[in-house]
Amino acid sequence: MKPNSHRLRSGFTLLETVIAIGVLAVLLTGFMVVFTPAADGIRKSINVQQADRFASTLEEELVTPRIGSGGQMDFRTGFDKSFDWIMGSQNVANALVVYQYRGRPNNLRPDGTPTPEPNAIGRLPGRDYIVVSTVRRRNDPRFAEDLAALEGAVYVVKCTQLVFGANGLILSPQPGSIRDPKPNGGAAARPDDYPEAVIAFTADFHMMPSKDPGFYTGSAFNTRFQNARNPVFSRNLAVRR
């Protein structure tokens, strides 16, 4: 009696193995072609969400008077603050920084912002700390405090007023100043000198390369600020009296 050939056969032949590997390679290639653009789209959507969040934080903070580090209100009105911060943002001494940090929701500073939570180990997000987006001037001592609880990168914001040109709104040819936006309008030294109800401006966000507090107090920051030319993203915004 002859043995059954189907019983004696075990495993796969070399040809079958090669064919299986080829099919698998084709499937993996197709998967990567479909998945890679989707992953890039997810990353871009997250970046757009973060950009929108920072732009909204800047717009809101500009019109929010707060108690300064000296214990007094820093500006009389939100428009006064906007005028001063937009005009001063091109000066390294008054540079605006926007960032996120871990804050204690039940422990507020006199200006209404949560105190930073430097240690996230063993802390429960949403209960022990929340992630806060904020904007400060670089020389604000509370910025140095927040760096100990930083979440993500720090961005410097340079604001340039939008004024009317021959074909509509254009960037002001005099960054670091606020002027009557009408053609040939003069400079306004104070908010009361500004004739319009709205200041339109472009905010350019530049990512900083360091989270070290020493970077923001030394010459390295000054050099980086002065050489910042290509923003990570920009937004056209406006503030109203």
Characterization of the model:
The chain has 241 residues and is of the alpha+beta class. The protein is 33% helix and 26% strand. A hairpin with a 5-residue loop joins β1 and β2. The longest helix has 49 residues, at 14-62.
Order of helices and strands: HHHEEEHEEEHE
Radius of gyration, taken over Cα atoms and rounded to an integer in Å: 28 Å
Low-confidence residue ranges: 38-45
The percentage of residues in β strands lies in 25-35%
Q: State the shape.
A: extended
Portion of residues in helices?
Answer: 25-40%
Number of alpha- plus pi-helical segments: 5
SS content category: alpha+beta
End-to-end CA span? 103 Å
Number of strands: 7
What's the overall average pLDDT, rounded?
86
Largest sheet: 7 strands, antiparallel
Primary descriptors:
241 residues, alpha+beta, 5 helices
Task: Briefly characterize the structure.
The protein is built from 5 helices and 7 strands.
List the helices and strands and how they pair.
Blueprint: H1 5-8, H2 14-62, H3 78-88, E1 96-108, E2 114-116, E3 130-137, H4 141-147, E4 150-165, E5 168-171, E6 198-207, H5 219-226, E7 233-240
Antiparallel strand pairs: 1-2, 1-3, 1-4, 4-5, 4-6, 6-7
